[in-house]
Design brief:
Elements lengths: L1 H50 L20 H25 L6 H15 L7 H11 L1 H26 L3 H31 E2 L2 H14 L1 H20 L1 H44 L12 E2 L4
Helix pairs in contact: 2-3, 2-4, 2-9, 3-4, 3-5, 3-6, 3-9, 5-6, 6-7, 6-8, 7-8, 8-9
Length: 298
């Protein structure tokens, strides 16, 4: 009997232990479920606040939804990182310009990278440059060929004007001046358009003129930013002698980056209008008309 009692006691203890473990498991599962539900509610609230642009402080966790402001050290590190990227970008841009026929592709790739840099969307600037360089080679070369033809026509007209009497040469000089004015309105925004949009050669040139005329201050800023250093170096031999290397290592990418700050805002604005017009199915035209599609980010 004693052995039987001992066996019954052991079974009772085992069953009691099993019961306790089951109760603990149930409590654990309930706790996990509650934690998941709370986390899901907090995540949902956070997403809603982000969508509606709110910045709320959670009183229990003291976690801020708003971005943490950058310190002076962070700003300095970002500045140095951007500066280094611009130096490397300028060097590969100069290399890409070595065959003169590829200058258009090099400028297009340069703007393709700087238009991303102003929004901190770029990866490796060197890889991004060569990827854009290859992708835009055909379209950019066609556009650049048209520009070269215009320069060639102006040169031929100038040669004829040089051998003509003064009365006849005046007409030629006027035509040359008009062509230079046309190029001045085309060039500042031409390659950013090629870098950003898929289009035809004619529409690239037409849209560049249209934007330049309709956004005259933006055009003026871009035009002066490129022409002022050139005119300064041509008019001052000392500046040319001591500053030519700046074009090789920094100046081209720096000017493109500076212009991209305002050009990217313009493109974002125009693309937003295009999206709204598409939603409303409105037939209105925008400055970015005739663009088949915005190029995907690389």
């Amino acid at each position: 009997m004693s052995k039987k009692n001992k066996a019954e006691k052991k079974e009772a203890k085992i069953s009691e232990t099993i019961k306790q473990s089951e109760e603990v498991e149930e409590m654990t599962q309930e706790a996990i479920k509650e934690t998941i539900e709370e986390g899901s509610d907090e995540l949902t609230q956070s997403i809603r606040r982000t969508v509606h642009g709110e910045s709320v402080v959670d009183p229990t966790s003291q976690v801020y939804d708003a971005p943490v402001p950058m310190t002076k050290k962070d700003k300095f590190l970002r500045f140095m990182d951007t500066f280094g990227d611009l130096v490397f970008l300028n060097i590969v841009f100069v290399v890409g310009c070595v065959p003169l026929i590829t200058i258009g592709a090099a400028f297009t790739a340069l703007y393709a990278v700087t238009l991303k840099m102003v929004k901190h969307e770029e990866g490796s600037v060197v890889k991004s440059f060569w990827k854009a360089y290859k992708a835009n080679m055909k379209a950019a070369t066609k556009v650049w060929a048209v520009i070269l033809c215009l320069f060639a026509v102006m040169y031929v007209m100038y040669c004829f004007a040089a051998g003509m009497p003064q009365d006849q040469s005046t007409i030629m000089i006027i035509f040359i001046g008009l062509m230079m004015l046309l190029l001045a309105f085309i060039l500042p925004l031409l390659f950013p358009l090629v870098a950003r949009y898929e289009n035809t050669t004619f529409n690239y040139i037409k849209n560049a003129i249209f934007i330049s005329v309709s956004r005259i201050w933006l055009w003026f800023r871009c035009f002066i930013s490129w022409m002022a250093p050139v005119l300064l170096m041509l008019s001052q031999p000392k500046v040319l002698a001591y500053g030519w290397y700046a074009w090789l290592f920094l100046l081209c990418s720096l000017l493109a980056y500076s212009n991209s700050m305002v050009i990217r805002k313009l493109f974002d604005e125009l693309e937003e209008k295009e999206r709204e017009a598409a939603k409303e199915k409105a037939p209105e035209k925008s400055i970015a008309k005739n663009a088949k599609s915005v190029k995907k980010s690389e």
